[in-house]
């Protein structure tokens, strides 16, 4: 592990990489569960400095840790499992209260059950609530959804989004799932063989053609927008993203509220002329800023600038040649409203 990072003190920082890249090792070093060589400072507080022989043991670090398995105490009810987490913190120092954690994770109806009466997703939500009740300055999450099937994973992701939106606790989140990056991450650290390939805001890294993420089957960009209008008859949201506007097939959201969307590269088509009377509602002026071969020999990845916002398009080499694409060229990107992931 050879890592030199300065990470933001708010939001979700996602450690991303394939098996063996060093994600979990780095997380365990932050937690003090493994003793690497180096220095670690969290919000100005020194947790480790090998040069001066400072090493704060795990139980003295103000952190919460969520593992792949919730590891609840089988002989205790959900309520008593949660109360166990609270015992680490003096009553006057608690920043997260029991009622708040229970509401955030939607586990009010589970409080008197034993762990063996919970589904996998319910156990993990209880485990996250227990970690929050230690009132951590930093929350560490080691692939908390890896042991869940697709249905359970879909159930728990909205609760993780609530933590992101409603708690002012920085989260260091380990994952190798691109959909979790799109849903949760503000900052992304891409690891490979124990080294940092790249670190930065998620919107920038996902659009970089020199990084592996752009070459995955579900490659795309994450965009942050503000709801500007809602058409109830057609259930379409209008979303301002930078200087552009997109329409998204989605339920009602409050005007002015923030929304994160993902536009996948395979769902973006390009045209030289502005089409008339098209079923594709999102027609966006863009400029070509780069190109690279895709993993499939028939495809290329095109990086676009959408009035200051980066986008990706995956098209065939044939289409690239027919359009005569080149860097600096201005044209139109088309995105179906039903294809935008909100």
SSE layout:
Layout: E1 12-16, H1 23-31, E2 39-42, E3 45-49, E4 54-55, E5 63-66, H2 78-86, H3 98-105, H4 120-132, E6 138-142, H5 150-166, E7 171-175, H6 178-184, E8 187-192, E9 195-201, H7 202-206, E10 220-231, E11 236-241, E12 244-249, E13 258-264, E14 268-271, E15 282-293, E16 299-306, E17 309-316, H8 317-323, E18 330-335
Parallel strand pairs: 1-7, 1-8, 5-6, 6-7
Antiparallel strand pairs: 2-3, 3-4, 8-9, 10-11, 10-13, 11-12, 14-18, 15-16, 15-18, 16-17
What's the gyration radius in Å?
A: 22 Å
What is the approximate shape?
A: globular
Helix content: 10-25%
Mean pLDDT: 91
Low-confidence stretches: none
Number of helical elements:
8
Percentage of residues in DSSP E strands:
25-35%
**Helix vs. strand class:** alpha+beta
Largest sheet: 6 strands, mixed
* Oligomer kind: single chain
Strand numbers in spatial order across the main sheet: 5-6-7-1-8-9
Give me the strand/helix succession: EHEEEEHHHEHEHEEHEEEEEEEEHE
